[in-house]
Amino acid sequence: MSAALLDRRDVVARLLADRRDLLVVSGLGSATYDCAAAGDDPRNFYLWGAMGGTAALALGLALAQPTKPVLGITGDGDLLMGLGTLTTIGAQAPANLSIIVLDNEVYGETGEQPTATAHGTDLTAVARACRLNAVDEVADMAGVEALAARLHAGDGPLFANIKIAPGNPEKVLPARDGAYLRDRFRGAVLGDAA
Amino acid sequence: MTLTHPSALPATDPNDWRDAVYELFRASAIRQVVYVPDAGHTRLIDRCHADPDMHAVVLSTEEEGVAHLAGAWLGGDRGVMLMQSSGVGNCVNMFSLLAACRLPFVTLVTMRGEWGEFNPWQVQMGRTTPDILKISGLTVHRVDDPADVAETVDSALRIAFDGSQGVAVLLSQRLIGRKDFTAED
Ligand SMILES: Cc1ncc(C[n+]2csc(CCOP(=O)(O)OP(=O)(O)O)c2C)c(N)n1
């Protein structure tokens, strides 16, 4: 592993900088704060709970909105809790879906207890075995740059594991009323049909 | 949006409640049907898979289905989850998503462990399923008579999608028929 691990806020800011019509689902805890820090948007659906559900929620959304790129972005702990969902995504193979893991190798929110990725679980290999188009582990900002473009390429299901530095940056808290987040998301995506 | 009725599908049997439920799904614009299989759902699952207007999605665990259908709804799709009573136990924490976001949700649950059950491992979830659903905030409809199934599912779909509520329809073991462990299949 290279000496300088990526900063999670830099990574997410870059992924969302030129988001165009990207729909975003963020996993509980840090991924949600990172997306809020990158700039609130009605097309962000922030999870504050439902641990293990980010990838599945993004899949249902991707199937419902096949012409829009959908990104599920989450922590390694959240993905591990719903690891079986990678098999579901592989079987459905939606071209517009991307799953990105911000892998700090710990359950950061709850006191930095190591996750299985700290002990060598290779999420990129798992995703490949589930037939997702997994890019090689991203370790520098050039890789993040390339990944940001891939989100819009429509050649998914895309998967990327990004090793990020440990540590919890200052929390940036978006709205947490789920019914509000639901309504504004549907309004932004569906317009009058919502 | 207009739907084309797929012609290559098996013909609907008016006496088969599973076909009636399928026709109701079509009439109610159900686009995503997610499931962990139960033998009692077989015909309905097959019909959903054969329908080009529906995504029929097999899950690795039922809790996935709760999150999946939340995403579907955020994207404008109506969905339904099919599962057996054991699967309800797998959903409990994910049901908090329905409450937190006040989402519509419909599940058809085939009951095991409640009527002439041969397998004692099914009995616990058979006994606790209705209460778990209720304390998780879902409205529970139960059906024992095949003649009542379509009407009950219709009610569930209306409560859910007209009023953003969670509804479970329990298809009783008497209705489904108890699983015969001595038969060849
Ligand atoms: C079902 C469930 N179990 C445990 C928790 C407690 N919990 C909240 S966040 C979290 C860790 C999330 O880890 P990860 O996805 O890796 O994100 P990080 O905080 O490291 O960025 C845990 C275990 C929870 N919210 N829900």
Key terms for this structure?
heterodimer, A: 194 residues, alpha/beta, Rossmann fold, six-stranded parallel sheet, two-stranded antiparallel ribbon, 8 helices, 8 strands, globular, B: 185 residues, 42% helix, binds thiamine diphosphate
Which helices and strands, and how do they pair?
The complex is a heterodimer of chains A (194) and B (185).
Chain A: H1 8-17, E1 23-26, H2 30-37, E2 44-46, H3 54-64, E3 70-75, H4 76-81, H5 85-92, E4 97-103, E5 106-107, E6 113-114, H6 123-129, E7 133-134, H7 141-150, E8 158-163, H8 178-190
Helix pairs in contact in A: 1-2, 1-7
Chain B: H1 17-27, E1 30-35, H2 42-49, E2 55-58, H3 62-74, E3 78-84, H4 85-90, H5 95-101, E4 105-110, H6 123-135, E5 139-143, H7 149-163, E6 166-171, H8 173-176
Parallel strand pairs in B: 1-2, 1-3, 3-4, 4-6, 5-6
Bound molecules: thiamine diphosphate.
Residues 27-30, 49, 51, 74-78, 104, 106-110, 115 of chain A line the site of thiamine diphosphate.
Largest sheet of chain A: 6 strands, parallel
Global shape of chain B = globular
CATH level 3 topology of chain A: Rossmann fold
CATH superfamily of chain A: Thiamin diphosphate (ThDP)-binding fold, Pyr/PP domains
Strand order of the largest sheet of chain A: 2-1-3-4-8-7
Apparent shape of chain A? globular
How far from one another are the termini of chain B? 41 Å
Fraction of residues in β-strands of chain B: 15-25%
CATH architecture of chain A: 3-Layer(aba) Sandwich
Largest sheet of chain B: 6 strands, parallel
Structural category of chain B:
alpha/beta
Fill in the CATH topology of chain B.
Rossmann fold
